[in-house]
């Protein structure tokens, strides 16, 4: 009987040890992955004639990185440093930035960042002419506009007729401050614009 109990205890102990080893192995694997070099971004959408900087994180002192762009007719590198690369877009299209990681002159990892260069906007229109907000409410104005072409990455500049009623950030995040009526204007780089009237009312008291 004691022999049977001892055997059961042995099996239970063995299974517990294996479970612990499995858990430790997973933790070490996760830790190793967390320490691997990575790009701060893996996808960039931009307009023509814009610049962008991509950086490699978690690069240790024994590692180096080299950068290149697959299609330099779409974007080309203007500056590199030990851990970063700045490139400029020149034509509409898609390409990739490749970051190759070396350790002791041996390639150990390749990182990629997709680059999508879009045309500038040629027109901007609000989907409606009036909008109602309650004091304290917020609204992303970009959701209310149509840009042409639809695939443009351009963000209009938003301005408000009276910021004491409505606070609007340059990229179009609006917050109602007090009751009243304001006009918000969205303007694109070519000078074209459109407007929306926002009516703001006080919160209803319970």
Keywords for this entry:
4-stranded mixed β-sheet, 2 domains, flat, Immunoglobulin-like, alpha+beta, about 210 residues, 4-stranded antiparallel β-sheet
Produce a short descriptive summary.
The protein is an alpha+beta fold and about 210 residues long.
What does this structure look like?
It is built from 1 helix and 17 strands. By secondary structure, the chain is α+β, with helices and mostly antiparallel strands. The chain has 2 domains: 38-118, Immunoglobulin-like (Sandwich); 123-199, Immunoglobulin-like. The strands form 5 sheets. The protein has a 4-stranded antiparallel sheet with strand order 1-3-6-5, with no helix packed on it. Strands 2-8-7-4 form a 4-stranded mixed sheet, with no helix packed on it. The radius of gyration is 28 Å and the shape is flat. The termini are far apart. The model is unreliable at 27-33 (pLDDT under 50).
Could you outline the blueprint of secondary structure elements for this entry?
Blueprint: H1 2-34, E1 38-39, E2 43-47, E3 51-57, E4 63-69, E5 75-80, E6 84-89, E7 93-103, E8 106-118, E9 123-126, E10 130-134, E11 138-140, E12 145-148, E13 157-160, E14 166-168, E15 173-176, E16 180-187, E17 193-201
Parallel strand pairs: 2-8, 10-17
Antiparallel strand pairs: 1-3, 3-6, 4-7, 5-6, 7-8, 9-12, 11-15, 13-16, 14-15, 16-17
CATH architecture assignment of the largest domain = Sandwich
Report the portion of residues in β strands. over 45%
The total strand number stands at: 17
CATH topology value of the largest domain: Immunoglobulin-like
Instruction: Write down the overall geometry.
Output: flat
Radius of gyration: 28 Å
Can you summarize the main beta sheet?
4 strands, antiparallel
Spans of at least 5 consecutive residues whose pLDDT stays below 50 are: 27-33
Q: How are the strands of the largest sheet arranged?
A: 1-3-6-5
Q: Number of helix segments?
A: 1
Q: Quick one: CATH class of the largest domain?
A: Mainly Beta
SSE string, helices as H and strands as E:
HEEEEEEEEEEEEEEEEE
Give the mean pLDDT. 88
Structural class: alpha+beta
């Amino acid at each position: 009987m004691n022999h049977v109990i001892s055997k059961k205890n042995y099996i239970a102990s063995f299974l517990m040890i294996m479970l612990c080893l499995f858990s430790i192995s997973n933790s070490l694997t996760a830790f190793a992955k967390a320490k691997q070099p990575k790009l701060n971004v893996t996808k960039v959408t931009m307009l023509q004639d814009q610049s962008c900087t991509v950086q490699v994180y978690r690069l240790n002192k024994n590692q180096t990185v080299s950068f290149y762009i697959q299609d330099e007719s779409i974007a080309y590198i203007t500056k590199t440093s030990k851990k970063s690369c700045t490139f400029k877009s020149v034509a509409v299209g898609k390409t990739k930035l490749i970051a190759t990681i070396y350790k002791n002159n041996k390639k150990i990892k390749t990182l990629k960042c997709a680059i999508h260069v879009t045309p500038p906007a040629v027109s901007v229109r609000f989907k409606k002419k009036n909008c109602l907000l309650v004091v304290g409410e917020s609204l992303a104005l970009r959701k209310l506009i149509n840009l042409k072409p639809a695939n443009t990455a351009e963000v209009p500049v938003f301005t408000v007729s009276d910021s004491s009623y409505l606070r609007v950030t340059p990229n179009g995040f609006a917050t109602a401050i007090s009751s009243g009526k304001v006009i918000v204007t969205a303007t694109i780089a070519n000078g074209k614009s459109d407007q929306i009237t926002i009516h703001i009312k006080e919160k209803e008291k319970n």
